[in-house]
From TrEMBL:
Domain called Methionyl/Leucyl tRNA synthetase: residue spans: 124-256
Protein name according to UniProt: leucine--tRNA ligase
Family designation: Belongs to the class-I aminoacyl-tRNA synthetase family.
SUPFAM superfamilies on file: Anticodon-binding domain of a subclass of class I aminoacyl-tRNA synthetases, Nucleotidylyl transferase, ValRS/IleRS/LeuRS editing domain
Enzyme class of the recorded protein, top EC level: ligase
EC number annotated for this UniProt entry: 6.1.1.4
Originating species: Gossypium tomentosum (Hawaiian cotton)
MF terms in GO: aminoacyl-tRNA deacylase activity; ATP binding; leucine-tRNA ligase activity
Every Aminoacyl-tRNA synthetase class Ia domain range: 512-674, 730-759
Length: 976
């Protein structure tokens, strides 16, 4: 999936914050800090830092600044790499990666034993960009890998595949700039991604790898298109599209930001063009209803609901009047969700692109209307409908009759009404709709109140009241409608009933969801399998037997600029013959959008080599649905909605057996760059506390290294001047900011296991978190401790002895309790995808184990099994050193024995003569005698008890021990 599509808007402003501020910027790279002057970093400081870095002095933080990256590189060339290893990860990791490959350890056989339960865990497959892997990728991939490994060990058949979403604009743009064929670039990038992923030890079944650019894959993407065409779900239409002249292509709405292309920032205009559309709207209700049964984040479900945007309302006809105020044959049908407010409609608005507009506009107003239409065509829908934007519009020169009040009302043209929604025309009710209110106030149109708030409060002047309430001013007996005194709900119902009776309207459900624009004027995409007869222009599907329709080789990928796609340059490919009539024909030269290949890839993984069917029925039935699907929240709507739509079509035609493709979706949080600290300075060079002024833009800024920073309460301050508060921010990683952490560097310095563990430990899986170098050093040290505990310290020349330090002794009760507590916690936390707290439990175990004299094999073996999903290389190595010839991957995951989980001791309060004097720790089943003996030996209690005659003991097992002293004898005794 193209993560470069990520669209997270920067925060509108960046005030100094107490906690690190998370600043995101997807494309527009923000100067850092945005409102501040250039930072100062001392070169000598940098030199010192990187010297430390190269010599592996862990514990020193390395926040890289823009200038530091180049310095590091220069230094790398001069100095030998001397990283101190906490354990020999650099030998272990390649060794076990080779082992897994040679032994096909993670291969999921084609014919699995289907009597066993299955677990299909999937990552949103990546778009193999030229930049290679980013530390954000392994976050999700490590989580799915832990789940895959955990479930394998629990006896499930696991499907854990990986592939490439490989068509897309960046490779094509690169081809245009450099003349390198997109296929070459893409394959090179895929090879890099694959080797990076392999270096992280993910347990993918690489024999199932698929790529959307392979003809054997896109054959089935094309086949699905033909099924959609057969069912009338793919059609052609002239639609206004986002046309980017500079890129020479049509862009999807999400690729246009503030009127310019997301990629390159080129101007975008609206232009009507022939396009292929997919009728996703036919599935709107099902896409909405079936959301309920999904175990998805509520936020995604909500976003899908809003995107589908189902609303219930009515269509009502308003009759157009001629210049003398007489009714004509022309009608303007409006869509409203508030029929109860119809008496308050004091004007109508039609969209600038409203089809009937040219026939209603008056001669005097024609020129200004056309001018207005032209300006509106250059605005995006978002710009037009923003509530805050000042409303614009022109009078059409004609009036229409409000069918309920009978009054003539003006018809305006305004771009806050969209041609693509409802009927493209609205009845404007300025008293009860905010936008209409702004518009009417600006153009002096009457405002008529027809709904009073239920609580009897008055209207706020200068503002619309958009809530429901009791209807007023809404009666016209001439037309037989009186809704005064009714609630909004009842009134809406009555208006619809009335409109249906008099033939002026009907109930109507509308969706925000639009049909899916399914064509791009690009080369690097799946060819659309359609031909056009040259004589009639009729479009015909390519025969299924002719699939795949392969993409022809081209040397020139530049867009024609006219909208003719680059494929039109492949003349001999374009010219063809219709096999059934023998007539000359031309091929469709538009290609499919990038979303196409990612819509169904999860099905192909179940049966990747099948040349007869998209997926074998039995295999699909066994593996469907995907049990856990992990990816970025940026795919909440488009990808997840498009694939649900295709899945439902495939369900309807019997290709798949489930209504939904993904049972559980999880979004991993974003990893931001390391926190950067900035101090403000006045012109004399004195530090100024960040809370001392509202506008810090006045001051000079200096980057402060982490070593000079300390946390004070909720704030970060200078270590040597704690009264100077600093600005702390974390930014999205970006090349230009120089805060990108490359996983390859981390792997070579600390090993893949440390990277995996850190990615899981850095914070809750679903939350945004900041990268922190000392954090990775911390987990690396933990792995070093674990290694030394089990294998031992290195010999003087850095090598390690064979075998381990474990003993064959029987574990003690305490050791068993510690282990089973850890098993229970790790299991529970993996199941709940709370990987970070699972790691904490393992750290606690290691701390406890360091206190033991001996490490019994039974205990250590179980612990290594627990560790293995997280750090598989180290676990495999120890497992083999423990004498096991086979991989740890299919060993049973330990089960917590409840017998060891019960707390064995209780704290017993001890009272002397009814007064609590202390507590003792006793075994749960402890007898009265034993409790009393313990109390007498207790330092504090003994002075009350020793040598004192006792009258009575009251003992409630596990609850209390009360000792009543014999006061008389105490006194007598003391006299004696
Ligand atoms: C009169 C009215 C009175 C409205 C009132 C609202 C409040 P949803 O819920 O999003 O479907 N509308 C209809 N078509 C439109 C278009 N093409 N472009 C912009 N706005 C359009 O919203 C439906 C409401 O949005 C409709 O109900 C209409 O304004 C407006 F007190 O009609 B209403």
């Amino acid at each position: 999936m193209n993560l470069t599509h990520t669209k997270i808007q920067p925060f509108p402003h960046s005030p100094p914050l107490t906690h690190p501020t998370f600043l995101f910027s997807s494309r527009s790279l923000l100067p850092f800090p945005r409102n501040l002057k250039p930072a100062h970093v001392s070169p000598s400081f940098l030199y010192k830092k990187h010297t430390l870095l190269r010599y592996g002095c862990f514990g020193v933080s390395r926040s890289r600044t823009r200038s530091s990256v180049s310095e590091v590189k220069a230094e790398q060339k001069q100095k030998p790499l001397l990283v101190k290893r906490a354990y020999p990860f650099d030998e272990i990791e390649p060794k076990w990666q080779r082992y897994w490959e040679q032994n096909r350890t993670f291969r999921t056989p084609n014919d699995v034993d289907t009597s066993k339960p299955k677990f299909y865990v999937l990552d949103m497959f990546p778009y193999p960009s030229g930049a290679g892997l980013h530390v954000g990728h392994p976050l999700g991939y490590t989580a799915t890998d832990i789940l895959a490994r955990f479930k394998r060990m629990q006896g499930y058949n696991v499907l854990h595949p990986m592939g490439w979403d490989a068509f897309g604009l960046p490779a094509e743009q690169y081809a245009i700039e450099t003349g390198t064929h997109p296929k070459l670039t893409t394959l090179r990038n895929i090879n890099r991604f694959r080797s990076q992923l392999k270096s992280l030890g993910f347990s993918y079944d690489w024999e199932r790898e698929i790529s959307t650019i392979e003809p054997q894959y896109y054959k089935w993407t094309q086949w699905i298109f033909l099924q959609l065409l057969k069912r009338g779900l793919a059609y052609q239409a002239e639609v206004p599209v986002n046309w980017c002249p500079a890129l020479g292509t049509v862009l999807a709405n999400e690729e246009v930001v503030d009127g310019v292309s997301e990629r390159g920032g080129h101007p975008v205009i609206r232009k009507p063009m022939r396009q292929w559309m997919l009728k996703i709207t036919a599935y709107a209700d099902r896409l909405l209803e079936d959301l309920d049964e999904l175990d998805w984040p509520e936020s995604i479900k909500e976003m899908q609901k809003n995107w589908i945007g189902r609303s219930e309302g009515a269509e009502v006809e308003f009759c157009v009047l001629d210049s003398d105020g007489r009714e004509t044959d022309m009608k303007i049908t409006i869509y409203t969700t508030r029929p109860d407010t119809i008496f308050g409609a004091t004007y109508l608005v039609v969209a600038p692109e409203y089809t009937l507009l040219s026939s209603i506009v008056s001669t005097e107003q024609r020129e200004s209307v056309e001018e207005y239409q032209d300006i509106a065509s250059r605005k995006s829908d978002l710009e037009r409908t923003e509530l805050q934007k000042e409303k614009t519009g022109v009078f059409s020169g004609c009036c229409a009759k409000n069918p309920t009040s009978g009054e003539p009302i003006p018809v305006w043209v305004a771009d806050y009404v969209l041609g693509s929604y409802g009927t493209g025309a609205i009845m404007a009710v300025p008293a009860h709709d905010a936008r209409d209110h702004q518009f009417a106030s600006k153009f002096n149109i009457p405002i008529k109140w027809v709904v009073t708030p239920n609580n009897g409060s008055c209207f706020e002047s200068g503002k619309a009241y958009s809530g429901e309430g009791i209807i007023v001013n809404s009666s016209n007996l001439k037309v037989g409608l009186d809704i005064n005194g009714l609630s909004s709900k009842e009134a809406a119902y009555r208006v619809i009933e009335w409109a249906e009776k008099v033939g002026k309207g009907k109930k109507k459900v509308n969706y925000k969801l639009r049909d899916w624009l399914f064509a791009r004027q690009r080369y690097w995409g799946e060819p659309i399998p359609v031909i056009f007869l040259e004589d009639s222009g009729e479009s015909l599907p390519v025969l299924e037997s002719e699939l795949p329709l392969t993409l022809p080789e081209l040397d020139d990928f530049t867009p024609s600029g006219t909208g003719e796609p680059p494929l039109s340059k492949a003349v001999s490919w374009v010219k063809t013959i219709d096999p059934s009539s023998g007539k000359p024909a031309t091929r469709e030269t538009n290609t499919m959008p990038q979303w196409a290949g990612s819509c169904w890839y999860y099905l192909r993984f179940m049966d990747p080599k099948n040349s007869n069917e998209l997926v074998d029925k039995a295999k699909e039935k066994y593996w469907s649905p995907v049990d856990v699907y992990v990816g970025g929240a940026e795919h909440a709507v488009l990808h997840l909605l498009y694939s649900r739509f295709w899945h439902k079509v495939l369900y309807d035609i019997g290709v798949v057996s489930t209504k939904e493709p993904f049972k559980c979706v999880i979004n991993q949080g974003i990893i931001l760059g390391e926190v950067q600290y900035t101090a403000c300075k006045d012109t004399d060079g004195n530090y100024i506390s960040a809370d001392s002024a509202d506008d810090l833009g006045e001051y000079l800024q200096e980057n402060i290294s982490e070593e000079r920073v300390v946390k004070s309460g909720e704030f970060f301050v200078l270590k040597d001047s704690p009264n100077i508060r600093l600005i702390a921010r974390a930014h999205k990683m970006s090349k230009s900011r120089g805060n990108v952490v490359n996983p390859d560097d981390v792997v070579s310095e600390y090993g893949a296991d440390s990277l995996r563990l850190y990615e899981m430990f850095v914070g809750p899986f679903r939350d945004s978190k900041t990268w922190n170098t000392s954090g990775i050093e911390g987990v690396h040290r933990f792995l070093g401790r674990t290694w030394r505990l089990i294998v031992g310290s290195p010999l003087h020349h850095g090598a390690f002895k064979d075998g381990t330090l474990v003993t064959d002794e029987e574990p003690t009760m305490e050791q068993l309790r510690t282990l089973h507590k850890c098993i229970a916690k790790v299991t529970e936390e993996i199941e709940g995808t709370r990987f970070n707290t699972g790691i904490s439990a393992m750290m606690e175990f290691i701390n406890a184990a360091y206190k033991w004299d001996k490490q019994p094999k039974a205990i250590i073996e179980a612990f290594v099994l627990l560790l293995s999903p997280y750090v598989p290389h180290m676990a495999e190595e120890i497992w083999s050193r423990l004498g096991h010839p086979d991989s740890i991957a299919y060993e049973a995951f330990p089960k917590a024995d409840p017998a060891y989980l019960k707390e064995s001791t209780v704290v017993l309060p001890v009272q002397i003569n009814g007064k609590t004097r202390g507590t003792i720790q006793v075994e749960k089943g402890c007898s009265e005698e034993d409790a009393f003996t313990l109390a007498s030996q207790d330092e504090k209690l003994s002075k009350y008890l020793n040598g004192k005659p006792i009258k009575k003991r009251i003992f409630v097992p596990g609850k209390i021990l009360n000792v009543i002293l014999d006061r008389q004898n105490v006194k007598a005794g003391s006299i004696q």
